[in-house]
Amino acid sequence: xxxTVVQKYGGSSVADVPKLERVADRVIATAKQGRRVCVVVxxxxxxxxxxxxxxxxxxxxxxxxxxxxxxxxxxxITMALxxxxxxxxxxxxxSFTGSQSGIITNDRHSGAHIIEVRPIRIQDELERxxxxxxxxxxxxxxxxxxxxxxxxGSDTTAVALAAALGASCEICSDVDGVYTADPRIVSEAHxxxxxxxxxxxxxxxxxxxxxxxxxxxxARRSGIHIxxxxxHAEGVGTRVGNEGSGREACGVATAxxxxxxxxKGRSVELGAALAEGEVPLWQxxxxxxxxxxxxxxxxxxxWAGFSRALRDRFGAELEVVENLxxxxxxxxxxxxxxxxxxxxxxxxxxxxxxxxxxxxxxRITVLVHPSDAPGLARALHAAFIxxx
Amino acid sequence: xxxTVVQKYGGSSVADVPKLERVADRVIATAKQGRRVCVVVxxxxxxxxxxxxxxxxxxxxxxxxxxxxxxxxxxxITMALxxxxxxxxxxxxxSFTGSQSGIITNDRHSGAHIIEVRPIRIQDELERxxxxxxxxxxxxxxxxxxxxxxxxGSDTTAVALAAALGASCEICSDVDGVYTADPRIVSEAHxxxxxxxxxxxxxxxxxxxxxxxxxxxxARRSGIHIxxxxxHAEGVGTRVGNEGSGREACGVATAxxxxxxxxKGRSVELGAALAEGEVPLWQxxxxxxxxxxxxxxxxxxxWAGFSRALRDRFGAELEVVENLxxxxxxxxxxxxxxxxxxxxxxxxxxxxxxxxxxxxxxRITVLVHPSDAPGLARALHAAFIxxx
Lengths: 388, 388
Prior knowledge:
The structure is a homodimer.
Chain A: E1 4-9, H1 17-32, E2 36-41, H2 47-58, H3 64-88, E3 93-96, E4 103-105, E5 114-117, H4 120-127, E6 131-135, E7 138-141, E8 146-148, H5 153-165, E9 168-173, E10 194-196, H6 197-205, H7 213-222, E11 226-230, E12 238-241, E13 251-264, H8 267-276, E14 281-286, E15 290-296, H9 303-314, E16 319-330, H10 338-350, E17 356-360, E18 363-368, H11 373-386
Parallel strand pairs in A: 1-2, 1-9, 2-6, 3-6, 4-7, 9-11, 10-12
Antiparallel strand pairs in A: 4-5, 7-8, 11-12, 13-15, 13-16, 14-15, 16-18, 17-18
């Protein structure tokens, strides 16, 4: 049977027509190798941000169903143009929306989860020898409503489609794989040849933007590999699979825009309120007297409005600390009791004030003020990765 | 039963967020009168042209299916933003794509015709007291493909929906009704209180842009009235129905971008070739020796490519005259043999060279070079309308 590959191209790989035409050439090169190609595309460049800005001109908290209607147009523009570019080069291509691709989601607008993939039309067209282009980031709920999957959702579209099609999955972007840290922050960062699902998921959940955490989770459950590659360069990239990085610590991730809440002795109520607001929690703890919650607000549709509602509900009891950053070291051998101490030492040496520290078998996370985050990332990379 | 109204807003009425917010206020004002409101919107401002320009960067003749995918996003952006603006003002609103609205078309991409309207979801939401916003200009073919209806197609969406919902239909734009000529060309032009379907259809088919000819035809067949009104001004506008303008000549329409073909004695072959190219013919005649075809190329996806194909097929026998204009006088009493002669006299007085003249019981059309068209429009308006 002919091999099928799903290739996903991110927004900066299709930011303008010339870049999109280079993607068309790359897709055709793959098809010429005799492989069936299903392409998943993001919106061009900053299109999604531009559309959100338009919505925010009208409302601080745009209704999520309508926001999904609006945002879903971005990927549709890319997919139609890419199909045109491929046809122009003499190859048959056809584009499908999330709904036409059989991406069925739950009805949680603006942050929907894929619950089923029925790629019947895609399979038919691949069998006819056509290149299929799919709008990433979107699906259709069982209520027949257009939904979007949240930031980075196109990765999940690609992985879920690859799993359903029995295909391999390439995530193509501006970087040529998964690095031990963001090279724009840590110049010593280097590419990993392989990384395990668990390592990648920890990195993605704690700020690494190269792959989406939900997508990695889907790949793990389906047992398919993800290849993170560069769109416009050769190279093997990074393979995400069962095989790990082979390192004790595989990477440092940085996240900003975090908020920490404290509420005396009402953790159940606080948890319920945050669940209602569909807040993507990093952590919810209760030390017996005070409940503490930590989460990122970058992708919340209306943090300002939601934060007002929380203060109205809980009054002066609620303490809100905004604008925090987290630097996390991820690795399979971080269980040792000495390591958090070492992280605290590194922070101390930099003069960085530690707001909190949290450890798990796979991770040490240091919560700091954003101005301290880049320096701490470099220090922790030097101590745990470069030295490891 | 509560009265339902379909209001259509054109691209310049929703060109930016402030204009869109004024439309939201107008829609809410209608809802406050106790009427159910279904709103049909066009793409914002020049969005459709911008998207076409993007496609043309990739291909001179973009595949029509993919062009429809691309262009259908324009109205979806408007509808989502308008639904947000209405909700922001405390009223319930929901937007629907052409497909969700039950607009079923044939599969002639980029110029599809509505064959059926099944507005089940719209009816449900109107009954719940919600304002419904529909993406104009688009539908879904029975093959479940996204189609577009061609230029001015949002008018047809509005009329077809109004007919299906048993609603009245308002077409709202920058002008406050149907004028006896384009006021930008003929300053003496004045608004008509009423005009018959037949008069309006002749005007629309021969260059008047205020209403779409297919929409008027649909209204005539369904027996519903169209009210052409100003979006941002009071006034009764113009009613299109069985009752005519009450004038012998009701208007002057100007069209540009026309092409005339001559082919010796092969009218069947020429007709077939033009039908294949889905050319919207004004006229196809055969005087026994030579076939003559007249049509507008403004809305043809790829006239340059199609024209090359015609020359290849028919060789030197085919004569192509491009860039012509037509000035038409429309009226119920134009059957008199003296009137074409009077039109010829007016052209002669201006020194305008007549390329051809064509008459029907409802119309006299004078084919000229574009530079002569505005002057001839003014002269014919003065002779037939102002004097009538």
